[in-house]
Amino acid sequence: MGLTATKVKATKRGVVKSRGGRPTRDAAIERDQRLIEAATRLFLERGFDATSIDALAEAARVSKPTVYAQYGDKRGLFTAVLRREIARWLAPLAEAASEMRFDDLSAGSVEQRLIDLGRQLLSMNCGADSIAFSRILTAQAINFPEIAKLAVDEGWSKAVSTTAEFFDHLVAGGALDLEDTTIAAETFLNMVVGHTHRMATFGIPIDMATAEQRMEVSIRLFLAGAVGPPDRLRDATKARRRPAR
Length: 245
Prior knowledge:
The protein has 10 helices and 2 strands, in the order E-E-H-H-H-H-H-H-H-H-H-H. The protein has helices at residues 25-46, 53-60, 64-71, 74-98, 107-125, 128-140, 145-172, 181-201, 208-224, 230-241; strands spanning 9-10, 16-17. It has a two-stranded antiparallel sheet with strand order 1-2. Helix 1 (25-46) packs across helix 4 and helix 4 runs antiparallel to helix 5. The protein starts with 8 loop residues before the first strand and ends with a helix.
């Protein structure tokens, strides 16, 4: 036919290679996915320090040189795992930001949308895997500050900016009145997930029903404002100053 089919062969580790010895494109993608999955599982089960390159290579059914060639060292592989997990944790926020069209921007609809978002954030960021990664990051931050910086830049900072964009839409629609949506986003995230995530990271048992109740109360407080209407503040101030009889 005038065309020569490329010969491929399967290695002992199951990676399909072309005649030149390199994995095919599909095989390379499958190998990398397998390595990331295996690394995620081992890091969660054993932690960073107790996970060796030997164990990672064996679990992923790849050679040690392959791990080093792709990621440089264990830290590079953990960084790749962390990036994927951060993307998963940010997914609820990204979805909310992409759905910035409300049929009704009444106070009730905004509150319910924020509560639904808060419930997703609690589930994604206070689950066992998220807490395990948080502990690893805390333990490794001193030795590998670049990993901690990545978590801040690609995790927390993106969460804040995405939430701020969400609030920008609500402000533009007249549903919220915020002086600074970035500060509001930081406050919102800390109120909704900060306490529960922190307690879980410390190993304190978390009751999710109680956590959701705290989240809903926090969102109502966020929407109402801590001070309340000026006339209510004046009345409360007068009551405190009224002399006892």
